[in-house]
Amino acid sequence: MATLKTKIYNIEFENPFLLASAPPTARIDSIDKAFKMGWGGAVLKTITPDNLEMIEASPRYAAWKANGKIYGFENIEMLSHLTVQEWLDGIAYLKANHPTKVIIASIMAPVIKEEWQKLVKTFNNSPIDAFELNFSCPHGMPEKGIGMAIGTHPEISANITTWVKEVSEKPVFVKLSPNVSNITEITQAVVNAKADGLSAINTVQSLMGVDLDTFEPQPNVNGTSTFGGYSGIAVKPIGLRCVAQVRQTTDLPILGIGGIANWHDAAEYISIGADVVQVCTEVMVNGYSIIKPMCKGLLTYLEDKGFDSPADLKNKAFIKLTAHKDLNKQRQYYPYINDETCLKCGKCVTICDEQEHSALSKENGHIDLDKTKCIGCSLCSLVCSQSAIKMR
Ligand SMILES: Cc1cc2nc3c(=O)[nH]c(=O)nc-3n(C[C@H](O)[C@H](O)[C@H](O)COP(=O)(O)O)c2cc1C
Hints:
Blueprint: E1 6-8, E2 11-13, E3 17-19, H1 28-37, E4 41-43, E5 61-66, E6 69-75, H2 84-97, E7 102-107, H3 113-124, E8 130-134, H4 148-151, H5 154-167, E9 172-175, H6 183-192, E10 197-200, E11 204-206, E12 209-211, E13 216-218, E14 228-231, H7 236-249, E15 254-257, H8 263-271, E16 276-279, H9 281-286, H10 291-305, H11 310-313, E17 335-337, H12 347-354, E18 360-363, E19 366-369, H13 379-383, E20 389-391
Bound molecules: flavin mononucleotide.
């Protein structure tokens, strides 16, 4: 029998699914509800010193939707509106009622040693399991010299990690920004500063769109807008890439985040190097109840593969990543067209023709392949609306 239980240091997770720091973890009563519904843990909405101003814009969200489904989500939201004391009381309540759930305090403060250390010392005395340092919020905070303004500078990130580690009595995870040209540089800096683990990714800096009648960018806040943070299904490939690059840099625990919508996404993250995963946007748009099929699906998958726990799945795909120069380029794949499902619309023929190869042609109601011209790129199989073309 497989189990979903897993461990980071002495922190035991009953399942590897945590709520990421965001609106679903902004209130004590809602975290209470999420724990009752089966979430393994929660990273609290980022806590700051009480005197840090948090004025929200309205609206603060925008979305890329297609056929009624949200693929990409943008927010310009600030951090927690609860006071430090409200969090301390709330954490005590949550741990007393849910002793098996993991609670991670996400924190952020101005780049002042005393401010970071004061926050850490305050929460050392609470029953949290770990700290997550938010060095990666891409909006609002960088203007104050914090959030992503920290996480894009290896030296500042390393300094703060050192300050926190000096006083922390709990493991310290650093939450990384994808908005850097080289995530391994910042990873190495905080690893050298003795971080205990990495969380990746925070949101991807974005601009959702423009209303072409009024020329107002989205989200439209009384006629103007600002750059926001992109999340949801659309960012999964960026999150996977970042987690793999972090894994290439260190063996420390990784909390994988970004576009996880179901057990399958979570399994991909774990196979590429994550120890546990965090979920935000999918919970925001579909509710806490997604945890049930997530747990069931992952457990069934682990059992089908003969794995005992998520730890057995970890790094299984990571070890298959290599440099482009080391890819096996000897074998060529060719498109095989399923005559029964193919609509003979000819889109693949046109597309192939316009990419210079002209390997496909439509003859007598069939799509024919000229193997001498085909380069095996797979574009035809990707553009087919019927998925009638498979590469073999
Ligand atoms: C509305 C919203 C608010 C967020 N607030 C925070 C925050 O306070 N602290 C933080 O570290 N990350 C915050 N995030 C980022 C998420 O924790 C997560 O890293 C990101 O959304 C990617 O995961 P997802 O694709 O599952 O949403 C926020 C994300 C959203 C959408």
